[in-house]
Amino acid sequence: MNLRNTKAGFLLSAEHEKLPIAELNALIDIFSLEGNLNCFKNYVILDSPISEEIIKKMVKRGGYTNEGHVIFSESPVINHNVDETLDNFFKTSETLDFPVEENETFAVRVLKLEKESPFNSMEIERKLGGIIKKKTSAEVSLKNPSKTVKVVISNDKMYTGIVIEKRDVEYFQNNRPHLRAYFHPGCIMPKLARCLVNLSRVKEGEIVLDPFCGTGGFLIEAGFLGCRLIGSDIDEQMVNGALLNLNTYDLSKQVISIKQNDAKNVSKYLEELEIEKIDGVVTDPPYGISTSKKGDMLEIFEKIVDVLKNNDYLVFAAPNKMELNLNLVEFYEMRVHKSLTRYIHVYRKN
Questions:
Q1: Number of domains the chain is built from
Q2: Domain that holds residue 288
Q3: I need a surface site. Which of 146, 153, 178, 200 has the fewest CB within 10 A?
């Protein structure tokens, strides 16, 4: 199957109001895509020429992107009339060449974006499944299909697509911080860490710096994306823990250097590595410092920005908004628990 020059649909996590779509926009930048985005709650359609391979890469790379689809048909919801809409939908479906082979199995799944949608999911799945079976001679398998045909229903349209990729749910569950070889309380969860790395727009092979690396959460996620890694922490025990964690995930080959270092001395650190500039900074500074000595923290960030290439990104979380002498392109609030809210900053160096 090679569907190209068609619309792509992305089913996003509903865990946060803004971060999933922000991450998807970052992925669009990373893969140099163009086109209009149409958002329907947690479902987003990208109207752009895009290959299956890029859709797969985007879903695999994302933290909050649950599924990626190639959309090959759309039909209108006619005057909110269910019978007329479905009659037109099934007539259109009978003319389609479904990307399902005779020797494959398939399932049809309906996603209604509105809770009060009047459409009957089981009826659509059953009838469309019958059409596909008749046209392709493929068998239905509800438990383990080779292909999943997805029907997404918004207020005004019904989109038909094929599921190209699903996010690896088990990875984020099985790699929570307390399950790692070295754990310290206060770590950012891997899904959020992956999202923040993506917000920095770093690409495979580029250098990511975390000057407050702690147990290595951001470096782990950046390493899985193929980035080269530089980290530091003022606490030697954290440095050793980060190295242990990266080694456990077989990411040591991605590491340029991780060592004990005061973030104020980041320029000297890079000079020792014979590296002039890096491609992205993703970090989570110690909250005790950033609250009690905010002025010191701003000074440290200025030094960090000095080693960042022009037009690249500094992404960090903090317990309050921090004003830097940079272009703040994105800003998000994430409530961790009753007494802690993380403010996610995305700065771009011009």
A1: 2
A2: 170-348
A3: 178
Torsion sign over Cα 282, 33, 12, 155: positive
- Of 234, 233, 252, 256, nearest to 244 by C-alpha is 252
Judgement on whether residues 181 and 158 belong to the same structural domain of the protein: no
Question: Per-residue DSSP letters for 265-297?
Answer: GHHHHHHHTT---EEEEEE---HHHHHHTHHHH
Handedness of CA 205, 211, 217, 218 (dihedral sign): negative
pLDDT in tens, the chain (350 residues): 444 447 999 999 999 999 999 999 999 999 999 999 999 989 999 998 899 999 999 999 999 999 999 999 999 999 889 999 999 999 999 999 999 999 999 999 999 999 899 999 999 999 999 999 999 999 999 999 999 999 999 999 999 999 999 999 899 999 999 999 999 998 899 999 999 999 999 999 999 999 999 999 999 999 999 999 999 999 999 999 999 999 999 999 999 999 999 999 999 999 999 999 999 999 999 865 443 344 588 899 999 999 999 999 999 999 889 999 899 999 999 987 777 889 999 999 99
- CA–CA separation, 125 vs 221, rounded Å? 37
Residues 150 and 252 both lie in one domain:
no
SS3 content of the chain, % helix, strand, coil (to 5): 35, 30, 35
3-state class (DSSP) for residue 106:
strand
Which residues are 344's β-sheet partners? 317, 332
